[in-house]
Fold this protein.
Amino acid sequence: MRSHQGKCGYLRLDGYPSNELEQVSDSGIDKAFLKDQFPELIDLSDSHHASRSQQGDLLTLIELPQFQAPQHAGLTGMDPRVKNQLEALQLHPDRHLHFGRDPELPNKDTLEFNKLESFSLSLNASVWDPPSLNTLWFELVNGAYGDVYRAKALMNLPDGRSMFFNWIVSQESSQFLPLEEISAPNGRPASLSELVVQGKHLDGLRIQSTIDLCLLNDAVLEMHQMPLRDRQKEAIPST
Amino acid sequence: MNHAIISCLHANLPAAKAVLNDIDRQGIDTITCLGDLVGYGPQPNEVVELIRKRGIATCQGCWDEDIIDGLNACECSYPSQLAERRGHLAHQWTDDQLTDENKSFLASLPTSLRRDRLLFVHGSPNSQHEYLLPDMDAFAALERVETAGADILFCGHTHQPYVRELRDGSIRVRLQNADHECDQGEELTLPMRKIVNAGSVGEPRHGSTNATYVIHNDATDEVEIKEVPYDVGRTCQAIVEAGLPKVFAWRLSHGFEFAEQAEDASHVCER
């Protein structure tokens, strides 16, 4: 997307529950992160923008939760209900690739599972103690709360920054990306903050209780933010 | 003559027994313990009583100190809010379990032990809470050993065993008078000093679940870091059964190299 010269779009399609596989509700993390990185991003799930899907130079990232391999290779393996959703937007796929089957995609990302659990937690207005966040993430992706295949989050730090955390079991390390937009160090931020975890034998209660130990209360948050506000005042030149 | 140095037992009885058995098998009868007999682990009384029964010379660790004095350390003792809150949970649990007699024993421990040119401390000569990390600034490390008047400083606290030789040390002093004229400087060349960290018996964090300790030969000054396997699963089960945070068991069962560290690990609490 960064190297694309034209407009960029984003589309999140609904998945279809089947074979008792749990579906993940859309946390909005990807959209929020992409919107931060590409402020001109066109949200194609917004009906006002749907007609723009035919813009010739539009590069669109389409997300679809799908927890099982397709039965057939190529376009015939594509769920007809997904095809219908795309056609409603006048989008006609010419290829359909799947991890673990098509050599164009890294086969390390193949995940063998019969049942996937998911855990999500809204963290809006929450601010983390940074070293505690570091520990929680290390414990989470290394299996302290169950076998984690996938985890991503948007987390707020006391200095106003938000970070995108991204973990895939087959990758060697997590991705930590700062968002461009920085909140003023003045109380709790209004930006989206959320944690989503997928895996097996997840202990959501323990994840939640550990997170509770990591979040800053109002008094401690103010201790972090007051010096930042003072520095900002000093930086404003007097007239 | 060989002598053994153990540290950071952290109420882990199977690990403590395994290490003492390993030392006994080698016929070593001089053992020095660098403290932290309790904290995080599920058998605080049993470990304290084992050390008392064996009559092992022991100095006081940060956990031993906090159990006696209460948690009046400033927040700098913990590298994160999470570590602090978990530490408080473990502290409260340990405080509830320990008998008065064992608390009195911990209170009686000295902060350092000295044998000729060898100094034994838990954290550093400055404080039981100070971390002497293996990559600590060489001048600061040399200063800790030199000002304590030791040739070899034995410490623990980091849970990562290491031997660090400080060679070719020198301290240069230059005085400047009020007219900003420099007097002749003086340079003091120091002989080699050594810092030996014994790692941890009860909560290893060196990339393996094995307990660690060191053997020092006081004739040759050779140091050997020893690793001892023990029944980690048994201790983990006891942690869970005791109602301590499950993450303590998880951490122990992996022996991760990862350890939380304060931003300035050499910061000394001045409470």
Notes: Chain A has two domains: 8-109, 117-228.
